[in-house]
């Protein structure tokens, strides 16, 4: 009664566990199981969509009613023909659990309620690894940070008060949650100031004195936060040639300042540092030049991977213009007309299939951007369609600071 489509999604952490479950469930229920891991995700992506994506525009099928998968499907795909998820093992990372639930909690679901079931360790096992209490503390940290009142794991979450930073896991204190909680408290206590800061335009920038820096090794350097439709990056620039990426926590610790700290005029090297960060951002993502070469150049490993990516993604995307773009780019890659193109497509493939850093819609835009860049379409009508799509992946400068003597 709770499962109107009869479809079920089972998540597990390990490929070995997924294989074990598939073998046992197929034997017990005498039914076919769709078993997904990083080894076969790209090969059977369309099969997954046909059987579990309520928004799939092709012929929806019922060849499989149960899918057992690792976290390779925790994001970037719809599984919402099912409204029931079973977590065979509970992830240590609370964000991962939220991502799993998000696969079935999508617009287009025929069910009005999502059911999320969790297998917990035995009492004896949990006494050894403390998974239940640690996962519960981490989730409570999210509630404290975001001010949520939704219970994700159990009814205990909002009934029992966990002190994330004083008790529970002092050695594993999550500083990311610390900053999120700090922002929430600042918003609650200073609503007008929070609103004023939120309205700041992009490119907020200032110079700060080294004596106020939280870290001692950033003298005469700049920290920059850049963000595009496809990614965000923090950079530390010590001179025009030395650009180093920062994690969120590293950048947050540098940005942190007291309200009484004075600001200073920007030094001349501030703009040079920012330009160096922008250049690094482009190079890190796709960056290359459009140098032409002869068509006699032999296809290398990048070319083969690029062609495979175009074939695989053509089967995945729902956009007709993107399917045509994949088809149009293939001969350009095969002929080696532009050497950087194969490498750029390889990078997109890695970000989508391997690292899962970008979504299907973002890949759609990136492929159209590459088609524009290399003048792939000669048809005026198709070029007009391409121009109507926003494919600008240049980053915006959110904030930058330079430390001076």
Structural commentary:
With 405 residues, this protein is an alpha/beta fold. The chain has helices at 15-29, 45-52, 94-102, 123-129, 131-146, 175-189, 191-198, 248-255, 269-285, 301-316, 320-335, 339-354, 360-373, 380-387; strands at 8-11, 33-36, 66-69, 84-87, 115-118, 204-209, 222-227, 232-237, 243-246, 396-404. Strands 2-3-1-4-5 form a five-stranded parallel sheet, with helices on both faces. A five-stranded mixed sheet has the order 6-10-7-8-9. The longest helix has 17 residues, at 269-285. The relative contact order is 0.10. Residues 155-172 and 288-299 have low confidence and may be disordered.
Concise summary:
By secondary structure, the chain is an alpha/beta fold. It contains 14 helices and 10 strands.
Count of β-strands: 10
Q: Which stretches are low in confidence, meaning pLDDT under 50 for 5 or more residues running?
A: 155-172, 288-299
Structural class, from secondary structure content?
alpha/beta
Order of helices and strands: EHEHEEHEHHHHEEEEHHHHHHHE
Give the biggest sheet: 5 strands, parallel
Mean pLDDT across all amino acids: 80
Major sheet strand order: 2-3-1-4-5
Q: Helical percent range? A: 40-55%
Note the beta-strand portion. Answer: 5-15%
Shape: globular
Per DSSP, the total helix count is 14
**Computed Rg:** 25 Å
Q: Give the end-to-end Cα distance, rounded to a whole number of Å.
A: 69 Å
């Amino acid at each position: 009664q709770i499962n109107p489509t009869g479809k079920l999604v089972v998540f597990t952490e390990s490929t070995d566990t997924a294989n074990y479950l598939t073998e046992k469930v197929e034997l017990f229920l005498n039914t076919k199981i769709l078993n997904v891991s990083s080894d076969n995700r790209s090969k059977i992506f369309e099969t997954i969509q046909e059987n579990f994506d309520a928004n799939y525009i092709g012929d929806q099928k019922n060849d499989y009613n149960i899918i057992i998968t690792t976290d390779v499907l925790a994001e970037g795909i719809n599984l919402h023909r099912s409204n029931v998820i079973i977590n065979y093992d509970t992830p240590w990372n609370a964000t991962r659990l939220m991502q799993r639930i998000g696969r079935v909690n999508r617009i287009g679901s025929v069910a009005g309620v999502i059911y999320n079931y969790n297998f917990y360790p035995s009492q004896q096992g949990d006494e050894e690894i403390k998974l239940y209490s640690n996962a519960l503390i981490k989730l409570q940290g999210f509630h404290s940070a975001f001010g949520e009142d939704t219970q994700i794991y159990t009814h205990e979450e909002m009934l029992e008060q966990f002190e994330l930073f004083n008790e529970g896991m002092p050695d594993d204190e999550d500083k990311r949650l610390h900053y999120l909680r700090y922002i929430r408290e600042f918003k609650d206590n200073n609503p007008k100031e929070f609103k004023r800061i939120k309205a700041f335009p992009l490119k907020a920038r200032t110079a700060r004195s080294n004596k106020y820096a939280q870290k001692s090794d950033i003298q005469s350097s700049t920290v920059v936060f850049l963000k595009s439709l496809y990614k965000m990056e923090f950079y530390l620039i010590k001179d025009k040639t030395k650009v180093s990426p920062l994690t969120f926590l590293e950048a947050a610790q540098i940005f942190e300042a007291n309200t009484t700290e004075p600001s200073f005029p920007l030094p001349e090297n501030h703009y040079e540092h920012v330009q160096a960060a922008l250049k690094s951002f482009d190079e890190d993502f796709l960056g290359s030049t459009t140098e032409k070469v002869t068509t006699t150049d032999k296809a290398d490993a990048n070319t083969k991977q690029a062609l495979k990516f175009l074939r695989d993604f053509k089967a995945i995307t729902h956009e007709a213009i993107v399917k045509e773009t994949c088809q149009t780019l293939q001969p350009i890659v095969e002929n080696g007309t532009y050497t950087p193109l194969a490498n750029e497509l390889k990078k997109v493939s890695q970000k989508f299939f391997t690292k899962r850093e970008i979504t299907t819609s973002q890949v759609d835009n990136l492929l159209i951007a590459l088609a524009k860049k290399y003048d792939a379409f000669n048809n005026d009508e198709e070029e007009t369609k391409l121009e109507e799509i926003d494919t600008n992946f240049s980053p915006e400068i959110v904030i930058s600071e330079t430390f001076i003597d």
